[in-house]
């Protein structure tokens, strides 16, 4: 910590990229030398270190990975290993693996295709699993599926570590993922596989293909959706309205990719339940834009994944197919503007100023794209242009904003880190062999009800990252209980399905907490 603090002192005024990569190196070296100490330092200083091992610095690390690479810290399965994966998986030295984070590097944060350099994301996500969920670091496995890259710069980089070929497509691609999933399932039938940062078409395709056969979920689609829903329900409470008022909120989602569509799907399910299973009414409240503007049924080559959310042109009076974000905000005066576009700065001054006319007394601006440079707007601009009454959340961390007169504009971090650790841990401890919508919904509801009214009134929608172990225990317990309710819980270790069934909510939380690994040195001297 002393060397970390002196680095901070000695690098004041130097560019962000230089300083944060130097910080990452200090932590990475500690990780290599002494795993127990690394995780202890991480847990005790999570607020300082999450921005280094996770977003935003992890993005920079991935971009520079060929130069930063020292040791694999995970497994790489390449298209050239086809037919060998079943034996390769037995090369992993750990006896037991509980949690796998898998990527193909095709959409790393908002940074695009980074090929094998995307391995930094599974490593960072699994560090969060250890820190937040207490998954034993000996039982985690970061995996890169190297199916090539379409990033020309990387293909030409002499230091690039991956296959120098264009990405596999179609059945060829799927056969690689199939083979990997079969191999993992054979060696560790209970391991949970988190799909991370796959480009949209494969995110949806693999989710559909595997979710009933394997214990897996897609964090960008499903984890993000739960976090966003908790935030949306929080904004209703922040307006001083009862939760039932959610059905009257106008929500504009900017970005029709894996994350945006995941959020809309879950929000519409919740709206629909609240309005007596009226899906039409639920859909009417939500508007979707992509790079070509407002998505309506008039759209040529309408993406089938976005089609269920496309507006009937007669329902958007005064707006046209492809209307710009500014036109949409001016016309609709939405309660919520939520960005998952991956494009930095598109909530520009004009758009933010237009949010001043929102029909909500506390308009919500969620600038969820990562890393920081890709956020739709930064916190200071949001409060400056949209006004001091807004509720603000971003995917990457920003400092709170000083609004003058002793007032503070609170910055929330709307990031799937508040859910994925609990989803993984809860599933593991329930012994469920699949992850259902019910389990994911329970996780989101738990997060949504975690904050007190007093906090919500101050614009605080999510817990501080300092309490991430506590929120993860609660989310984990909610997932266990949902699995029990759905008769999916087969138990874990000595705890069988009957015992899980008889646990109260408090006992389930205690059970989850007891199963969290905590870094302490193990004894080197065995007692006789
Ligand atoms: N905060 C979180 O927890 C969280 C979770 C998941 C994803 N994300 C972030 O969300 C972003 C998108 O992820 P994704 O998986 O959905 O990506 P994606 O590539 O699947 O989708 C991006 C979407 O944005 C649209 N878009 C591009 N330019 C636009 C513009 N100028 N205006 C409006 N829309 C535009 C595209 O048409 C596409 O529909 C990434 O930056 C990612 O880091 C954040
Ligand atoms: O990695 C993150 O910080 C969140 C999310 O999974 C993303 O892809 O941006
Ligand atoms: Mg992601």
Automatic annotation (TrEMBL):
It comes from the Eukaryota. This is Uncharacterized protein. It comes from Populus trichocarpa (Western balsam poplar).
């Amino acid at each position: 910590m002393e060397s970390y603090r002196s680095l901070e002192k000695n690098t004041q005024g130097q560019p962000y990229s230089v300083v944060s990569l130097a910080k990452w190196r200090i932590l990475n070296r500690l990780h290599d030398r002494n795993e127990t100490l690394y995780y202890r330092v991480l847990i005790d200083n999570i607020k300082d270190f999450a921005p280094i091992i996770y977003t935003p610095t992890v993005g920079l690390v991935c971009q520079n990975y060929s130069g930063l690479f020292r040791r694999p810290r995970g497994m790489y399965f390449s298209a050239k290993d086809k037919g060998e994966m079943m034996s390769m998986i037995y090369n992993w030295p750990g006896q037991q693996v509980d949690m796998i984070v898998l990527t193909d590097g095709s959409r790393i944060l908002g940074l695009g295709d980074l090929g094998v350099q995307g391995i930094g994301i599974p490593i960072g996500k699994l560090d969060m699993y250890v820190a937040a969920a207490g998954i034993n670091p000996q039982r985690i496995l970061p995996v890169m599926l190297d199916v090539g890259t379409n990033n020309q710069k990387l293909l030409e980089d002499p230091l690039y570590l991956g296959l120098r070929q264009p990405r596999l497509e179609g059945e060829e691609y799927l056969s690689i993922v199939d083979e990997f999933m079969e191999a993992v399932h054979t060696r560790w039938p209970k391991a949970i596989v988190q799909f991370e940062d796959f480009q949209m078409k494969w995110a949806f395709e693999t989710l559909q293909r595997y979710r009933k056969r394997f214990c897996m979920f897609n964090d960008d689609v499903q984890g993000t959706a739960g976090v966003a829903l908790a935030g949306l329900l929080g904004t209703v409470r922040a307006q001083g309205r009862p939760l039932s008022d959610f059905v009257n909120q106008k929500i504009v989602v900017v970005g029709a990719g894996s994350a945006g569509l995941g959020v809309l799907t879950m929000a519409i399910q919740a709206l629909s339940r609240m309005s007596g299973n009226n899906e039409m009414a639920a859909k009417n409240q939500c508007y979707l834009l992509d790079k070509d503007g407002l998505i309506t049924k008039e759209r040529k080559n309408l993406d089938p994944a976005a089609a269920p959310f496309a507006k009937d042109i007669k329902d958007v009076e005064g707006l046209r197919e492809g209307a710009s974000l500014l036109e949409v905000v001016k016309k609709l005066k939405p309660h919520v503007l939520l960005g998952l576009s991956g494009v930095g700065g598109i909530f520009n001054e004009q758009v933010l100023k237009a949010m001043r006319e929102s029909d909500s007394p506390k308009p919500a601006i969620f600038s969820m794209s990562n890393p920081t440079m890709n956020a739709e707007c930064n916190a200071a601009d949001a409060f400056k242009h949209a006004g001091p009454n807004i509720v603000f959340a971003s995917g990457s961390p920003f400092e709170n904003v000083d609004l003058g007169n002793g007032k503070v504009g609170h910055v929330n971090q709307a990031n799937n880190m508040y859910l994925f650790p609990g989803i993984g841990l809860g599933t593991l401890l329930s012994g469920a062999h699949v992850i259902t919508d019910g389990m994911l919904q329970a996780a989101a509801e738990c997060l949504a009800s975690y904050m007190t009214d007093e906090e919500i009134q101050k614009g605080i929608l999510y817990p501080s990252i300092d309490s991430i172990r506590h929120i993860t225990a609660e989310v984990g317990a909610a997932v266990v209980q949902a699995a029990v309710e759905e008769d999916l819980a087969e138990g874990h270790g000595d705890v069988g399905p009957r015992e899980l069934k008889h646990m109260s909510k408090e006992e389930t939380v205690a059970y989850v907490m007891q199963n969290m690994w905590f870094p302490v040195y193990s004894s080197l001297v065995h007692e006789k």
